[in-house]
Amino acid sequence: MTIPHLIGVHPAWLPPEAFSAIGSRRTLVQADESAPARTVRAEVADACARHGGAIAGPGEAADLVLALTSAGPLPPAAQAVAGPEIGAEGFLLARQDGVTVVLADDPAGLLYGFFEVVRQGAAAFGASRPAEAHRPALRRRMLDHWDNIDVHPVMGQVERGYSGGSIFWRDGVQHEDLSRVRAYARLLAATGINAVGINNVNVHATEARLLTDRLGEVAAIAAEFRPYGIRVHLSVNFASPVALGGLDTADPLDERVREWWARTTGRVYAVIPDFGGYVVKADSEGQPGPFAYGRSHADGANVLADALAPHGGVVHWRAFVYNHRQDWRDRSTDRARAAHDHFAPLDGQFRDNAILQVKHGPLDFQTREPVSPVIGAMPNTRLAVELQVTQEYTGQQRHVCYLAPMWSEVLGFRFRGPDGRAVADVTTSGGLVAVSNVGDDPYWTGHPLAQANLYAFGRLAWQPGLDPAAVLDEWIGLTFPVGQDGDAERLRGTLHELMDGSWRTYERYTAPLGVCFMVRPGHHYGPDVDGYEYTQWGTYHFADRDGIGVDRTRATGTGYTGQYPAPWSEVYESLAECPDELLLFFHHVPYGHVLHSGTTVVQHIYDAHFAGAEEAAAMRARWAELDGTKTVDAALHGRVSELLDEQVRSAEEWRDQVNTYFLRKSGVPDAHGRRIH
Questions:
Q1: Among 132, 285, 530, 625, the one annotated catalytic
Q2: Rounded CA separation 252/556 (Å)
Q3: Residues 271-306: pLDDT tens digits?
């Protein structure tokens, strides 16, 4: 096993300097011959070769001991911290008598423990401390790639990808050299990710064949992820029995269909024994599904779950199901209601290895949405919450927008008030899933600072209660190792100033008060207040001369508020109690309506958009102060500078279009007399 060190590709949060604390010491590895354990040995050897350390043999003195509880008699340092069962993927970390110890029950836990020592750096070899237990809060921590094999005529090589092409395929063929996939797996394992879906949930004709005659490509990718403890999953077409198997039906209750899925899945596991399972988007935005046969989504998911069960696999069944041919004239229809209407009545009908994958909000990864009520409505179903690391509606990785504060709010939301279970608790067995933001760009994520979102997703999936600012601080320390000639605290302070509040800055200069969308149709970048207002997609704001917002109340609107349990059903129903940041998601109000902040809706729109644009300009100015210093590589500084120029331009465009639109709609001038066109 060789450790991938790519030329011309940014090392992200695993630069060689991050391994100096380990690589300059003596390390003993006591483990089995599994793939992750071999990886730990290889990582230690690579670090020692770079930084002058050594690998200790059995019985020899060591500064660091990495040991499996099952790998023979434990060295004394490990015996001293051994105790009750640690558990799958978990590890103990201790520092006693000058020795740092990582102890795990399984190889994946040992790998994660190794990367925790990397993350802590010299601090892992400091003062003595008793054994600390580290265990993942969520069982499955997964990234979904929306990569295509063929270049799609509209969506390109990667749908909603803003970082170049796919790291798996290019122009219809798999990359001959997959070393970048191995390097990617390494980055993910360092954050705690343990599963990856490798292809687009919108499964086109060529991609459907990954299940059959192109299965060898999936196996080749799985071989690159396996050393880092990551299982590969595959998005499949629900109608595969017809498209690939020659059947005349994909009816999930047809015995021929059930047999086809069982045979096909068996062949997959014969080639990839540790295959993770399937991801399915069905009856959504033109994708085939069980509705065509008068069957439920539980029927559809269960036929795949039954095929996977003998092999230990799971099916992720996406709950993103809605009518995308709505009539904007009909205010009784509501896209936000759709997932709950379709799936809540099916609670308890899904197999144990079927995971219902629910977007964190009821619409579509917007800058501000309430938490989806589906997450709190299905206690007898395994649920996974889906986030979007790729910034489709949050600046498309041309804008700095650190998303961990948003995700932290979602994961900490409690459906039944302070005493209820948090979203993170609901998804313990199902896990956390996100759409990946990685491509073949030299900086992985296009915008170098967007790497922080990928890092933060993995860390929050492992431990949802982490402070987003602390996670960002970890990422800064790893990604920008500043030497003696650099000013580490200056760089750290600058990045926190740019990134800590960047999600709320983006929110200020885009769609106000939870109204959602207002983006240009199709590519979803930049402002277009009425872009979707009269379309079939059901993403409306209903602004007129008198007011703005969507009435989703039970009393006079679509009834969506009734999908929440108390107290939220009453909070969102009440105009007086509804939080300002979600007001226009739940209510249609006059422009003169006074917010809890004391300002009117229309004045808030003006103020927020002016403030957001000013904050974007301040971010650019703050970053420019680092130009010519030794704190940041010149090429990286230049890339970020170019993107901040675009962010400032775009923020001003948002400000001017949105403010002008509402001035003309409302006829209410800005109280501060600022220029609105």
A1: 285
A2: 39
A3: 999 999 999 999 999 999 999 999 999 999 999 999
Among candidate residues 356, 350, 343, the one with its CA nearest the CA of residue 302? 350
With beta carbons less than 8 A apart as the criterion, state whether 225 and 232 touch: yes
Q: Report yes or no: 499 and 492 within 8 Å, Cβ to Cβ.
A: no
Q: What ranges make up the beta strands (E) of 545-590?
A: 547-548, 589-590
How many C-beta atoms surround the C-beta of residue 312 within 10 A? 14
Let me know whether 126 and 165 are in one domain. no
Asked whether residue 453 falls in the same domain as residue 517, the answer is no
Residue 61's domain comprises 16-134
Residue of 105, 392, 507, 551 marked catalytic:
392
CB distance 578 to 570 below 8 Å: no
> Is the confidence at residue 503, as pLDDT, over 60?
yes
Whole-angstrom Cα distance, residue 391 to residue 291? 31
DSSP lists the bridge partners of residue 387 as: 434
Instruction: Indicate if 419 belongs to the active site.
Output: no
494 within some domain: no
The token pair at 460 is: 């929050």
Helix axes 468-479, 107-120, angle to 10 degrees: 80
Q: What is the tens place of the pLDDT at every residue in 34-52?
A: 999 999 999 999 999 999 9
Place of tokens 């619409």: 363
Among residues 255, 348, 245, which one has the least CA distance to residue 296?
348
Instruction: Provide the whole-model pTM.
Output: 0.98
Query: What is the spatial distance between Cα 81 and Cα 594, in angstroms, rounded to a whole number?
Result: 59
What CATH code is carried by the domain that includes residue 93?
Answer: 3.30.379.10
What DSSP designation does 521 have?
T
Residue of 232, 133, 227 whose CA lies nearest to 463 = 133
Q: Determine whether 392 is an active site residue.
A: yes
Catalytic residue among 63, 334, 364, 573: 364
Catalytic residue flag (residue 132) = no
* pLDDT more than 90, % of the chain: 96
Enclosing H/E stretch for 387: strand 382-388
Per the CB < 8 A criterion, the answer to whether 321 and 357 are in contact is no
Same domain, yes or no: 123 and 262: no
pLDDT at 485 over 60: no
172/126 same-domain check: no
| 247 pLDDT more than 80 | yes
Last residue of a domain, one of 77, 107, 134: 134
